């Protein structure tokens, strides 16, 4: 089954189950007060890809080279060797394009969104995908992982990547720089990609603070002067500049799929940036509703079966007795 079909089936199953009255749908999980994340403001991104390079350095991942351009990392999509990517949306021709033909374009940064109610966590049968109850970081434990790749299917952002070319392949994805051996967040540091961003297009902070900052930016108009933060929401390093574009009145990740801890602002419709249109209800809530329906629904048949066995035994005993 393809990833998209899997997600659709979960949604349809939940709908059937709930409308048939056989299930009580579970709500989206709430966000932790101390959840951390990043705010990517595409209007500030200059496409320098310093974030991509820093991410590779921290995660010790090799560049992805193409023939004829051996000196440049040419990754165009997330992969098991590339946990974040900068893509360009071309406003002139539509779609993602590396070559821009006029001034109407926007960059887009992709990585794990650290979903509030993560599909990858919900489907993992061995709890190798985990969400920290305090920081909300979604991490992956390679020692627990059995390589079933359910998480790959269940991610609406197509993020987890499996190492198909390794004998004992593993799942790779951004862990917000807080995995075993890195632990930047636990040590009070910020993520590598926000640390090196020269324009503050990508900043680190608590989701609460980042959401408030995103809402402040939505009040701005193109040409207004604004003081932007560099690296993190509470950084003493700020700079003043003119707002480059009218913000779309939409904070991606505030509500999509139950919300994410990586939030996105843009000057072009956010769906142009390669992000999916998602309902507010998380896929995890949908799929767990289906699971609980299946398991819950088995209580009734099991009860009936137990009753039948009891009756059959009683009648058999009764029959014996009567004879
Ligand atoms: S973006 Fe995908 S991999 Fe990341 S937390 Fe959400 S479901 Fe999991
Ligand atoms: S948070 Fe860390 S792992 Fe995730 S994209 Fe940024 S640098 Fe890479
Ligand atoms: S480092 Fe900042 S400005 Fe450069 S590509 Fe990454 S997000 Fe954009």
UniProtKB/TrEMBL annotation:
User: Can you tell me where the transmembrane regions are?
Assistant: 294-312
Q: What are the GO cellular component annotations? A: cell envelope
Instruction: Identify a single GO molecular function assigned to this protein.
Output: 4 iron, 4 sulfur cluster binding
Q: Which domain of life is it from?
A: Bacteria
Q: What cofactors does the UniProt entry give for this protein?
A: [4Fe-4S] cluster
Record bears the keyword DNA-binding: no
Q: Please list the residue ranges annotated as the 4Fe-4S ferredoxin-type domain.
A: 36-64, 103-134, 136-165
Q: Which UniProt keywords apply?
A: 4Fe-4S, Iron, Iron-sulfur, Membrane, Metal-binding, Repeat, Transmembrane, Transmembrane helix
Q: Where in the cell is it found?
A: Cell envelope
**Entry keyword Cell membrane:** no
Q: Which Pfam families match?
A: Fer4_11
NCBIfam families in alphabetical order: PRK10882.1 (NF008134)
Name of the molecule in the record: Hydrogenase 2 operon protein HybA
């Amino acid at each position: 089954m393809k990833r998209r079909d899997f997600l659709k089936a979960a949604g349809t199953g939940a709908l059937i189950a709930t409308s048939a009255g056989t299930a009580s749908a579970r709500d989206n999980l709430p966000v932790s007060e101390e959840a951390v994340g990043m705010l990517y403001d595409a209007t500030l991104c200059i496409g320098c890809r310093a974030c991509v390079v820093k991410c590779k350095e921290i995660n010790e991942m090799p560049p992805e080279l193409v023939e004829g351009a051996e000196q440049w990392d040419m990754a165009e999509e997330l992969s098991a060797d590339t946990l974040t990517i900068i893509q360009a949306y071309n406003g002139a021709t539509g779609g993602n394009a590396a070559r821009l033909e006029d001034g109407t374009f926007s960059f887009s940064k992709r990585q794990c969104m650290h979903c509030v109610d993560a599909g990858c966590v919900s489907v993992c049968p061995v709890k190798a995908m985990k969400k920290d109850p305090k920081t909300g970081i979604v991490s992956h434990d390679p020692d627990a992982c059995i390589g079933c790749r359910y998480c790959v299917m269940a991610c609406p952002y197509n993020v987890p990547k499996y190492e198909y070319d390794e004998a004992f392949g593993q799942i790779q994805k951004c862990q917000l720089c807080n995995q075993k051996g890195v632990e930047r967040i636990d040590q009070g540091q910020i993520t590598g990609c926000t640390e090196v961003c020269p324009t503050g297009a990508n900043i680190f902070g608590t989701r609460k603070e980042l959401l408030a900052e995103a809402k402040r930016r939505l009040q701005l108009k193109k040409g207004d002067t604004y003081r932007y933060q560099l690296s993190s929401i509470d950084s003493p390093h700020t700079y003043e500049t003119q707002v480059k574009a009218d913000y779309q009145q939409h904070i991606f990740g505030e509500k999509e799929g139950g919300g994410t801890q990586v939030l996105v602002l843009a000057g072009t419709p956010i769906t142009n940036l390669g992000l999916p249109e998602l309902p507010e209800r998380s896929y995890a809530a949908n799929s767990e509703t289906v699971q609980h329906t299946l398991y819950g629904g088995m209580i009734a048949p099991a009860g009936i079966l137990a009753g039948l066995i009891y009756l059959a035994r009683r009648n058999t005993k009764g029959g014996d007795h009567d004879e």
